[in-house]
Amino acid sequence: MEIPPGRSAYPYHWHESITEVYVILSGRGRLRTPDGEREVGPGHVVVLPPGPAGAHRLTNDGTEVLRYVDVDTTSDPDVAHYPDSGKTGLIVGGVPVAFHRDAEAVDYYDGESGA
């Protein structure tokens, strides 16, 4: 994976079932987690567990491309939560297919007559 200077790989998010591991190859960046922000650089290995405690965003705040290997456990489909924007998304086969605002979520039985 590559992140150009001044950009983030993804918005701040966490996964229901996926553990992500980042191995930083080159460049420098800032990793945001629920514990705050910290600098990362070549040789750093970051483990991001599923659930809110594993929320993360990797941002390239350096002047060169930040290169890293992203190794994930497999869970397809994947459900990802975006706390900054209040949305949840469904990702199937690595492709985002459905996102909704959490405030607009409906009850499990909404629209299900006789259930």
UniProtKB/TrEMBL annotation:
Residues 34-56 are annotated as: Disordered. Residues 42-56 have a biased composition (Low complexity). Residues 1-71 form the Cupin type-2 domain. The keyword DNA repair does not apply. The keyword Translocase does not apply. PANTHER family: CUPIN TYPE-2 DOMAIN-CONTAINING PROTEIN, OXALATE-BINDING PROTEIN. This is Cupin type-2 domain-containing protein. The lineage of its organism: Bacteria, Bacillati, Actinomycetota, Actinomycetes, Micrococcales.
